[in-house]
Amino acid sequence: MSLPKPETKVQKSSLSKQVVIVAHSGRMLANSARQSNWVPLVIDSFGDQEIAHLAQKNWVVPDFSKASLEPIITTIKQDFDVDQLVYGSGFEFHLETLFWLSEHFTVLGNTAVTFQQVQDKVFFFATLQRLQIPFLETHFTAPPVGTNEWLIKPTAGEGGVGIHWYDSRELVKDTVYWQRYQKGTVGSVLFVSDGESVQIIGFNGQWVESGHTQYPFVFSGVRHCPIVGVTYGQQVLDWLNQLVGVFSLVGLNSLDFIMNKGQLWVLEINPRPSASLMLYDGYCRNKLFERHVQGCLRHLMDIPAQSIDYYRGYQVLYAYYELVIPEQVEWPDWVLDKPGVGVIIPINGPICSIIAAEQNTERLTDLLNYRARVVYQLLIYKEKVSSCNFMPVLIN
């Protein structure tokens, strides 16, 4: 239940603490904060239905520029007794805002300097090379035209948006880089660190939205993949132990990599809580928001890894054409990030997300596939339900 706007400053409860959450989609972090007995004030880009129940107050902004956030931050400082902030995705294009926010709040997350270093692809890949951590062949000027296939990637971005096949005839900006395409399976590892030590939360497999014609590598979903940890766990942990120290990473982060025939290559680090948080939050001995805070305050507790009883999956569903959310949609309880009535979803825009849990990966895939069909049916995507395959397929 949402609370009315306070007339005076809201004092911190003896049973909970307030925190400002700023993220492209704030629902995940707001839910995580609630599980750890924090009261979130959320600034995001969607204002989904769940936010009304999770956040004490929610503000929706078009972007995370200082101009968009400044009046809201002024209001928060005037009306609420809060001095801590957690950020998620969305600052890849507004790094200057992250520096500005750190002047007004204690940021529970990586510093703006760390975020900048990880986002600086020249510095990042040079660091990997110095540490002898393998990565795909990468260029910052157009590679020679030949038989090899290349991907072109934005130097700042999230969720695979902007990644596409390189065409030597296209006019490119100077804010991209080129990376050799590698067949394989994309994986990630969610971890928590305190700037020195690191604890792995879990290994995951990822897949992309195959129906997105403009950007065929847009993130679609993530699921448990513990077999990756069994096979490559020590190798990835060794990499993380080096990278955490070099970049002073704190709190929850994730590292993406690609695997093929026994070889691993690092793709990138997400220096913030990632979507894979959805697979573990509430199923670990410690709530992950609290572990994030512990890492940021540099007193991370050593907690043994917890075995996975069910395989869990999280998937984002996208609009195949412009969609207006109709009235009286009876959303199933496994649907998250539900848009409000009348909201216009642009073509290729995210509609909502779904979650599922099963005792093996095959049944998990089937269940995600079925639930995707149910949602599209609810939204009158009948021709798409019958003609499209929503089976989450790992990149190969």
Keywords:
11 helices; globular; D-amino Acid Aminotransferase, Chain A, domain 1; alpha+beta; disordered N terminus; 8-stranded antiparallel beta sheet; Rossmann fold
Write structural notes for this entry.
This protein is of the alpha+beta class. The protein is 28% helix and 27% strand. It has three domains: 17-108, Rossmann fold; 117-296, ATP-grasp fold, B domain (D-amino Acid Aminotransferase, Chain A, domain 1); 311-387, no CATH class. The protein has helices at residues 27-35, 51-54, 66-79, 95-101, 112-119, 121-131, 226-247, 277-280, 288-296, 361-378, 382-387; strands spanning 17-22, 38-44, 57-60, 84-87, 106-107, 138-139, 150-154, 164-165, 176-180, 185-194, 198-208, 219-224, 250-260, 263-270, 311-318, 323-324, 335-336, 344-345, 350-358. α4 (95-101) runs antiparallel to α5. The longest helix has 22 residues, at 226-247. It starts with 16 loop residues before the first strand and ends in a 9-residue tail after the last helix. Mean pLDDT is 87; it is low at 1-15 and 382-396.
- Overall body shape: globular
End-to-end separation in angstroms reads 44 Å
Number of helices: 11
Supply the CATH architecture of the largest domain.
Answer: 2-Layer Sandwich
* Secondary-structure element string: EHEHEHEHEHHEEEEEEEHEEHHEEEEEHH
How much of the sequence lies in strands comes to 25-35%
Structural class: alpha+beta
The main sheet orders its strands as 14-13-10-11-12-15-19-17
Unreliable stretches (pLDDT < 50, length at least 5) are 1-15, 382-396
CATH superfamily of the largest domain: ATP-grasp fold, B domain
Portion in helices: 25-40%
Q: Which fold name corresponds to the CATH topology of the largest domain?
A: D-amino Acid Aminotransferase, Chain A, domain 1
* pLDDT averaged residue by residue: 87
How many strands, what sense, and barrel or not for the largest sheet? Answer: 8 strands, antiparallel
CATH class of the largest domain: Alpha Beta
User: How many β-strand runs?
Assistant: 19
- Count of domain modules: 3
Query: Taking Cα atoms only, what radius of gyration do you get, to the nearest Å?
Result: 21 Å
